[in-house]
Amino acid sequence: MSGISLALSFCLIFLFTISEASRCSIVGLPVVRNISELSQDNYGRGGLSHITVAGSLLHGMKELEVWLQTFSPGSRTPIHRHSCEEVFVVLKGTGTLYLASSSHEKFPGTPKEFPIYSNSTFLIPVNDAHQVGNTNEHEDLQMLVIISRPPAKVFIYDDWFMPHTAARLKFPYYWDEHCFEVPVKDEL
Ligand SMILES: *[C@@H]1O[C@H](CO)[C@@H](O)[C@H](O)[C@H]1NC(C)=O
Ligand SMILES: *[C@@H]1O[C@H](CO)[C@@H](O)[C@H](O)[C@H]1NC(C)=O
User: Would you say the pTM of this structure is higher than 0.85?
Assistant: First the structure.
């Protein structure tokens, strides 16, 4: 390798490292940020727009995390559970919450269905399997989601009759993968 291309490679590695760091750090972020200008992605899930408004890995939040999620008509979360508290605030649209309050049974079982709508809010009890979907054919469903104990450790089910013990752990979760590093030590 010639001296110039070697220098160029170092330069690229250096730039790459800087851009990685700035995407996963609050250093240099303005105090007040315009949500419309935060980066959003679907993380490979059709119909989803996810924005981490305040994140554990992204911003160093220790106790809670806030997401803004928009689901296009017909799209939904996987059936999943997590051992954290979760609060939803529906900002726009309508949809359905499927909730199986059966974490003490062997599998979730047929969930209860609840219509959700603009200005409604709901809590997901710790470890209850649930799914939230946009069941409206015309309008997007937009929700603010607050979870405790971030980053989220999510267990995913193929269906409502899959045993709790067979649900697959997805950690780090899709939007945390980019910034995840093996934690050194929790200071709290
Ligand atoms: C926030 O960002 C959006 C999209 O870029 C823009 O239209 C809006 O004017 C911004 N709001 C303020 C107060 O700057
Ligand atoms: C949501 O609540 C706010 C405050 O009460 C109200 O102004 C707004 O019209 C409500 N929106 C809907 C769709 O009900």
Answer: no
